[in-house]
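Extended Data, panel c. Modelled sequence:
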Amino acid sequence: MTIQADIEQKLANGIQAKHLEVVNESGNHNVPPGSESHFKVVIVSEDFADKKLLQRHRMINQVLAEELQGKIHALALHTYTEAEWQEQSGNAPMSPPCLGGSAK
């Protein structure tokens, strides 16, 4: 199983999501071809209702604790309730371009 598939499965089992999207963004970074180290997660769940952003991210981090110990180098999280997702018109922000490991 790929790391991406593992992330998808764990999040689907750990959080009641109405929408879940896991994007491998490793190709946008200075890593070997085929790497699975940089991910973007877009997740819509009523589990996030009345929770601050930090609480939502902690929920995700708890579900992915094992992967965050070494398999994942970067994880961009976009967490929404269904109403917030509709306000976004079903679009999450684009990830910023990679700076090649330095703040140029």
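The CA atoms of residues 22 and 41 lie 5 Å apart. This feature is highlighted in the accompanying rendering.
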